[in-house]
Amino acid sequence: MTNQPLEGTVVRLVRLSPDHAEALFPSASDPEVWRWMPRARPETVDQLREWLREMTADPTRRCFAVQRRDDGTVIGSTSMYDLDLAESRTEIGATWFDRSCWGGPYNVESKLLLFTHAFEDLRLARLALRTDNLNVRSQQALTRLGLVHEGTLRSHMRRPDGTRRDSLYYSLLADEWPTVRETLRARVTAKTTPLLA
């Protein structure tokens, strides 16, 4: 994985490391932020550090910390996983942001940077994201990002509370990317204009 950050207007994606645990813990320990994550919420910085260590050691992952450009604050994390260059595909996940950043340009631009990396640097044919069937906010966000709902894997995963979840799958293909890229760029511009005014 490249050590070069992916640079945007309001965020940069930098290579994630266990050293980001302290900066990420306030958001990762927020029950509302973590509500739909498929693993138990970390209770300590050390627990989060160990999870980041596992993630970053996985050769099928490319993991990023999301850093706000204007002050360098780490405001979230996002990853590619199940990256298969031979089959030209990946999934995007393990994404969360500090609640203060919800609704702003940060998630949209991080997806723009990650999707650009997937389709233009790695030349992938396909990327996918999945979400809990009860997470309506995420489903709406994925639709706004321009992804196509492919279907549902029933009783796909166990939630941290022991209940079973269905996973809704969304995807984006390389030939759809140019249109989605322009939509995302326009959304970033619309969301950043008030910040830069």
Task: Please give the structural blueprint.
Layout: E1 6-7, E2 11-15, H1 21-28, H2 31-34, H3 45-57, E3 62-68, E4 74-84, E5 89-97, H4 106-121, E6 126-132, H5 136-144, E7 148-158, E8 164-173, H6 177-196
Helix pairs in contact: 1-3, 4-6
Summarize the structure.
Pfam families: Acetyltransf_3. With 197 residues, this protein is an alpha+beta fold.
> Mean pLDDT score, rounded?
94
Q: Helical stretch count?
A: 6
- Beta strand %: 25-35%
Fraction of residues in helix: 25-40%
The SSE string, one letter per element, is EEHHHEEEHEHEEH
Distance between the termini: 36 Å
Number of strands: 8
The poorly predicted ranges are: none
Structural classification: alpha+beta
Query: How much is the radius of gyration in Å?
Result: 16 Å
Sheet with most strands: strand arrangement: 1-2-3-4-5-6-8-7
Per the principal axes of the C-alpha atoms, what is the gross shape? globular
Q: How many strands, what sense, and barrel or not for the largest sheet?
A: 8 strands, mixed
Domain N-acetyltransferase: 11-175
Protein name: GNAT family protein
Organism: Streptomyces mirabilis
